[in-house]
Write a structure and sequence with these properties.
By secondary structure, the protein is α/β, with parallel strands linked by helices. Helix content is about 35%, strand content about 20%. The chain contains 15 helices and 20 strands. It has helices at about 30-40, 45-50, 85-105, 120-135, 160-185, 195-210, 220-225, 225-235, 290-305, 350-360, 375-380, 395-405, 420, 440-455, 485-495; strands at about 1-5, 20, 60-65, 75-80, 110, 150-155, 210-215, 240-245, 260-265, 265-270, 310-320, 330-335, 340, 365-370, 385-390, 410-415, 430, 460, 470, 480. The strands form four sheets. Strands 7, 8, 9, 10, 11, 14, 15, 16 and 18 form a nine-stranded mixed beta sheet that branches. α4 (about 120-135) packs parallel to α5 (about 160-185). The longest helix has 26 residues, at about 160-185. The protein is elongated, with a radius of gyration of 24 Å. Bound molecules: ligand BES and zinc ion (ZN) (2 copies). The site of ligand BES has 16 residues, from loops.
Amino acid sequence: MQITFETKPYPTLETEALVTYVFEADEPIQGRVADLDRAAGGLLKKIATSGELTGKSLEFTLLHAPAGLKAARLLLIGAGKRDQFNAATLRKIAGAALRSLKAKSVKNFAFLPNEGLSAEDAAQAIAEGLITGDFETDKYKTDKKDKKIDSVSLVGFSDSEKPAAEKGLARGTVIAESQNFTRDLVNEPSNKLTPRILAEKAEAMAKESGLAVEVFDEKKIAALKMGALLSVAQGSAEPPRFIVVTYTPANTKPGAPVIGLVGKAVTFDTGGVSIKPADGMEKMKYDMAGGATMLGVMRALAALKPSVKVIAVVPATENMVGGKAQKPGDIQTAMSGKTIEVLNTDAEGRLILADAVHYAKQLGATHLVDAATLTGAIVVALANINVGVFGSDQAWTDKLLTSAKATGEKMWQLPMDDEYREFIKGSFADIQNIGSGKGGGSITGAWFIREFAGDTPWIHLDIAGTAWNDDAKPWLAKGPTGVALRTLVHLVLNAS
Ligand code: BES
Ligand code: ZN
Ligand code: ZN
């Protein structure tokens, strides 16, 4: 899909569809929509007066051959209340427009932002909405619908706004394409994405983007004494991989932070001997979403070039049942030297993150963020709406929450009182991998990882509820979401 700028006056644009949006108000026909209404001889006001066009969020009004306009269709999308309008709203509108027009076999359309955002922010949000909205999960369907959007022109940007809009378009394109890179990885079934294949894809991405990459095989992982990661991997015929991708800026200031991004990549989670129920187990191919997110972030950073060093650390393994699998009660020694009693083999994400977080610190990370589909309990707490946020350092955590707000990703911080730490005190080893208390499953999971972060400012994102859309949204296909990528890219750019 091509996205270009078009400077022709929009009422005279010849296009298959002209798309814009209206705000929910007593008089929704305002701003540029009022211009269109004048060209169309008051048709839009008439529809609004009839009550059919109100501007309610994602209300669709599609007019064919609107009199006075050269466009074959005019699509007006409800943007909700104007005082709540932001880049996230515009992103959804652009995505929803693309998906609805694509379903109608439209190939080319024009998008006209109404008032409300700077040219740069608007162009970025539109690009992000269009490109993430265009992503489909039909890779393995042999009867693919040949519905495809070829090009979208962005209209309504004045010559003086053009440079800023171009910047926004470029940034939005990089971020959205990286988000789709992540979503593509998450969508792969586990037979097509083993730890080895994930490592190959990470290497290919790094080479293409000009990033440094290292992949450790099972021998190197053993030599490094990553006992927690190995304990999860030992039940699988597929060997684990440990992926390290590094972005080094051209110039670093002395004393600048080094950001470590650690992502859980369990390419399939059966639960191991503490096996999961069959119903819904197929979804556990997405248990590598945290790792895929960090790889996508690195892909974006390579193009956006922040002035801060970033290291992504992605431990990749399956969690399988079998004669060699670890068993409840087994005691493992992590790379840090801490001993872990594995009371439940299904709490495997925290095990592999233990070694990855420790290793990221060894590489010099001064600030850590991990992302993981860690707990079913986060779905109980926050449903599929908010990412669960946990942190050991409020200043660092606040930065992330600010980035989440700025990029329109819903995230909610949960408490990490010391009392919860008691839940994972081990009976026969230093710590145990599930809590002994009742409830607080996501918090005990976070505390387990924090044990390995130590004094290094650390944030944990539990994306188990948000990395996968069980149902399609008007602006996004069903399946992988690529959640947290935008926030993390913003966080790194802000730290530099
Ligand atoms: N990958 C799962 C988390 C998960 C579970 C995501 C259900 C989405 C839906 C993780 O490895 C896991 O199984 N966690 C256990 C932890 C428990 C044993 C303490 C869970 O949440 O049930
Ligand atoms: Zn599990
Ligand atoms: Zn898991």
